[in-house]
Amino acid sequence: MSCSSNSVDDRNCRFLLDISVNETINLNFPEFSQLKSINVPVHIPLIGGKDGIIVNNTGSRYVAFDATDPNHIPTDCSFLSINGIIAKCNCEDGNEYSLLDGIPVGNTGTTCALRGYIAQRNGDDLSIFN
């Protein structure tokens, strides 16, 4: 069982909507099987969610994050792309975040960490929720 807790102060991080997340994926399905490997993140679209979630197996736990840059009002460019274990914003500033803990990387002046969700494995199923 794993719960992501972001250590960056997020009192001013109010751009993301509070949506309910309750997804279960089967790690044996081809589109999710790479999550059995360490640090091979996967983007999962959500029904009703803007950009979905990004899930990663860190080796010691699973982590899940909202796939929208929390330092922007959600727009077409605030979707996060996966580049190894880094999530990168597609807006002009190119904010980057670690997919190990959701914390901003580099000295970009970002104040908000990625919004984390609980990721809990039960056999071949991985439940992601808040």
From TrEMBL:
<protein>
    <submittedName>
        <fullName>Uncharacterized protein</fullName>
    </submittedName>
</protein>
